[in-house]
Automatic annotation (TrEMBL):
InterPro entries: Cuticle_Struct_Prot, Insect_cuticle
Region entry Disordered, spans: 241-269
Biological source species: Pieris macdunnoughi
Keywords of this entry: Cuticle, Signal
Coiled coil: none
Gene Ontology MF: a single term: structural constituent of chitin-based larval cuticle
Domain of life, source organism: Eukaryota
Protein name in UniProt: Cuticle protein 6
Stored Pfam families: Chitin_bind_4
Length: 313
């Protein structure tokens, strides 16, 4: 499933709140907030429970060489559509579902934060308080089914906790195949026989014979041992005379790097921020994959959704 994203560009000054035309006017940008001002936004975010973005329209796919390309019916299209890495050559077999997605994020500068998002396929909210406790929840559609997975989690001084409706997997003991069982029994029998024989005669080779044919190393035979002090003197002489010699091929000379001066990090009172905005996002859906069911089954259909050519797909 491919997603087309259309963003609205909004120019806003710090501390200036601007609302745009959308399903829910929650477009906000607040910068350079005091921790107390930021906490007001963190305590009242646009939404606190995750839910999938609502659908606002269903549009036909209009290609660049279609006579309707420049008409209002085409909607916000570029005339080209891609799915699974390839351009769609048969746009009549697809429709474009448009959804009203949204997201928000804020911090108070003292460790607390809150963020969330809503898209057609998943949604999430999470917040953290200054004490360090974290809580959140998210939902998403499980594979190609209509079942929505919902997860709620929180982390505190007692650890991490989670509640969900994820299908549980019942663990079953490993079923041993017959050939594996026979091989295991044969191995166990051989091991028991070997253990019994070892108890009767622990040393099959007889009494331990400590005869060792020791051969001294060549350095010991020739008296080539060098005291550590002699080795150190040789190394020091080599390093001294080597540094006084002429340039040798392959010898590398390095230029000392200038001393790095690190500027101290700016300090000041903690500041926070908060933003939230809505934006349209689209999903290309093949008509044949719907099987006569409503478009995007399992999702709420908004009243302002439109049909294509007076048909229901």
């Amino acid at each position: 499933m491919n997603v087309l994203l259309t963003m609205q560009t909004v120019f806003m000054r710090p501390r200036l709140q601007v609302a745009l035309s959308s399903a829910v006017p929650t477009n906000i940008l607040e910068l350079d907030l005091t921790p107390e001002e930021a906490q007001k936004y963190l305590n009242s975010p646009p939404f606190t429970e995750p839910k999938l973005a609502g659908r606002t329209a269903v549009l036909p796919l209009i290609k660049y060489n279609d006579a309707r390309f420049r008409s209002a019916e085409a909607g916000p299209t570029l005339g080209h559509y891609w799915k699974n890495g390839r351009e769609i050559e048969n746009p009549d077999d697809y429709v474009e579902e448009v959804y009203d997605a949204s997201q928000f994020h804020g911090q108070d500068g003292l460790g607390a934060y809150a963020y969330g998002y809503e898209t057609p396929e998943s949604s999430k909210v999470e917040n953290k308080v200054r004490s360090g406790d974290v809580s959140g929840s998210y939902t998403y559609r499980a594979g190609n089914t209509n079942e929505l997975i919902k997860v709620r989690y929180w982390a505190d001084s007692q650890g991490f906790h989670q509640e969900d409706n994820i299908p549980k997997v019942v663990l079953q003991p490993v079923q041993e195949a017959e050939d594996v069982r026979q091989a295991r029994l044969a191995h166990e029998k051989a091991w028991e026989e070997a253990a019994a024989a070892a108890r009767v005669q622990p040393d099959p080779q007889g009494e331990y014979n400590p005869q060792i044919d020791y051969q001294p190393a060549a350095s010991e035979q020739q008296g080539a041992y060098a005291a550590p002090s002699q080795v150190n003197q040789a190394r020091e002489a080599k390093a001294y005379y080597g540094s006084q010699g002429s340039y040798q091929p392959g010898q590398a000379y390095s230029t000392p790097l200038p001393e790095r001066i690190e500027e101290p990090e700016p300090t000041g009172p903690p500041r926070g921020f908060f933003y939230a905005f809505n934006y349209p996002t689209s999903i290309l859906v093949a008509k044949k994959d719907q099987g006569g069911a409503p478009i995007n089954p399992g999702y709420p259909i908004d009243q302002d959704s439109v049909s294509i050519q007076a048909k229901h797909y």
